[in-house]
Structure formats: structure tokens, C-alpha cells
Task: structure prediction
Amino acid sequence: MKFSQLFTKTSKTAVSDADSINAKLLTQAGFITKQMAGVYVFLPLGLRVLNKIENTIREEMNKIGGNEVLMPTLTLEENYEITGRDKTLTDVFYRTSGAGESKIVLNPTHEEIVTPLVQKFVFSYQDLPKSVYQFQTKFRNEARAKSGLLRGREFRMKDMYSFHADEKDLDAYYEEVTKAYFRVYDRLGLGNGRTILTYASGGAFSKYSHEYQTLSSIGEDTIYICEKCQVAVNKEIADEQNVCPKCGNKDLKEEKAIEVGNIFKLMDKFTGPFKFLYQNEKGEQQVAQMGCYGIGPSRIMGTIVEVYNDEKGIIWPESVAPYKVHLMSLGKEEESKKEAEKIYQELSQKNIEVLFDDRGNSSAGEKLADADLIGLPYRVVVSKKTMEKGGVEVKKRNEENVEIIKAKDLIKILS
Ligand code: ATP
Ligand code: MG
Result:
């Protein structure tokens, strides 16, 4: 992509109402722009990041047998009357009305849609287990939208639901999902002790649910970490339970964290009210057992920025960076402009993702500052000076040293 073709621009000035690093940097660098409180536009650079996050999650869900679907945004409120959640979710619902008398909600979650959906196709124990997921825009009238992408009123979610003949089978799959989620966070740069499996309240149906909490001072959650087991307890349940649920250790470390995922054993909470029955081996009708597994791609995008930044801008992990390389020519010399254009064509041909700052009217200072703000993993500069030294200058965003490399060796380094 050429900078001159991007319709967006970076902006030097701080966003006046940005209450977080992610809101400020993502807006200044031209990844998102605010539409209203808790509602953002994903601009070209931001959409590329979001898509990379979602594709990583998609790959890991497919590996554990997930069926991807796309459920609707609009649902009749009657669906929620079946489970009684028309009363309990009332604060977060955005309600609207259809033609005639129908009452409609914009789904804040999809248990009431997925349960009758899967039920249509499952009749016998031989049809189980099954796992279904989607990427959706969720609508929740959060009391306080805040911290940029961390708490939106319209946000992205990957939600997966699994259906099983019995609890034992659900438990085995739950374990598999636990591991898949860790693979996701590792791949997104949030692994290596940055994201902690956290025991949280399980509701009425199981002792615990599990949250994935990424350590960050802006996090709304307080967790107590057992450093020996590398698990934590959420403060919401810790009052009665301020010990490690694995080893009984009482010496736990308090940290702030962002909930980036949440997995739940729902058992028959939804399959019961919807009468999701299947026939077991003995020919008896049994209620299917259910699990649900949520993860927030847009919140993760904000979280990555909260974790990876410095005073100059964002520092994207390579796996989610919108492009791998930030290429630019500095100075007025035609020769270096031509050389940069040639490098752009070559890298593009090799499918190396490159953002080419081809703007003719920007100063060197502006171009370099924008590269730091946008935060791509590699910066490649072509100028009279680098050409005299026999090549181009390469710098990694997360390292200080610069190297001069022959243009023909670039592809080797960058692929
Ligand atoms: P929270 O306690 O932060 O409100 P939740 O328990 O309501 O989260 P879930 O309903 O389990 O969240 O949603 C699954 C995932 O969706 C969360 O782990 C989080 O990553 C993401 N998510 C939830 N609410 C929001 C929001 N308002 N904005 C952005 N992402 C969200
Ligand atoms: Mg919530």
C-alpha cells in the first residue's frame, strides 16, 4: 500500500477525550476513529490488524473442530423470554421494533440463538459433540464505555458454543479450548506470562469459570496470582477464596488485568429451557450439556497497544502488524525515490506486506515520526546517504540499532 493512496492521515495532536493509551495512539496513528462513545470506525490500517487477530483465532478454533457460522444481529425478544434473560439483560439490551408488533433486540450475546439453531440438527448421541462459532459485532449498552477499544458498546466478539452428551465429554473439550486459547494469546504476542488463566465465578452451574487476564495497569479487573502455578483468582470471588485454587498457596500477588477471554461450563442452563434433547444409546431422551467460549478481538487490539508502546507510538508484534515493513525515501534526490519505488515493487511481488511512504511533500522528520507512531516491525529508509553507503537502512521498531543492507539482500531478511 502506498501512503499517498491511504485516505486517512496521522495526527500529531493528542485526542482530547482519549482516556487511554490505546485510544490515543490508535486514533493518532490512523487505525480507528471515534463515532460516538464506545463506538469506533476501523480504518484501513486498523481493519488489517483486526482481521489478523480474527484470522489467528479462526485458525485455532478450526483446529479444535469449530464450525464457523454467522448468526444474525437482530433477534426477536421472545428468544430471551424462554430463558428469562429478557429480564436480566435488560440494562445492556438495545431494543428496537420490527414491522407490526414484534419486539426485537440487537444481540449482546448469542446463547439464545445458537441453542435452538444447533438443536435443529442434533437428534441422537451420534450427532454429538458439536462445536459452533462465529465472529460477530455485539451490542451492549454498557453503563460506561471507556478506554478506547477495551470497553465498547459495539464491539467484536468470537463466541463459540459446544454441545455434549454429558459433562465428562464437555470437560474434555473445555480442556482442549483452554489450550487453544493459550495458543491464540501466544501467537498474538500476549503469551509468555502476560496472560494468566484466572478462576472467576461460575454462576450457579459450576464452581468456576475461567477468564484469560492480560496484565495491564489500565485493566478493570484485580486478580491474585499464584506465581508457582501461574494461575490467578479474580477479586470478585477472592474474598471467600483468597488462596490458589490449584495448590492452596495463600501468598498471592495482586495485579491489574484486562479480561481478554472467558470460558464457561453452561451445563443445561440454555439447553434446559430450550428443551434441547437428544436420544442416548439406551433410547432415552437426555438434555445436552453446553459450554461457551468468548474472546474479544477488538478488546485484544486495544490490549496489544496497551502492552506494546513507547513514547513515540505503537510497537506491533509481527503477527498482527497491519504491514511488516514501513518503507520510505528521504530527501529530494530522484535516484533514491526511484530506488524506493523499485524496492516497493520487489517486496510486493514477494508478498511481503509493505507500507510505502511515497509522500513527496513530507519532511524527513515527519516521515520518521509517523513510522514510529504507526509502529510496523521494520523500517526501511532509502536516501542519498544510505545509497552512498551501498544500500538501504533497516531498523526494527523495537530495537535501537540501525543497519545498512544491500537492497538485494532485503528480501532475505524480510521474508
Ligand atoms: P466484562 O466483565 O469485561 O464486561 P464480560 O464478562 O461481559 O466482560 P463476555 O460476555 O464473557 O464478557 O464476553 C467475551 C469477551 O468479549 C470478553 O472476554 C471480552 O474480551 C470481550 N468483551 C466483553 N465486553 C466487551 C466490551 N464492552 N467491549 C469490548 N470487548 C468486550
Ligand atoms: Mg460485561
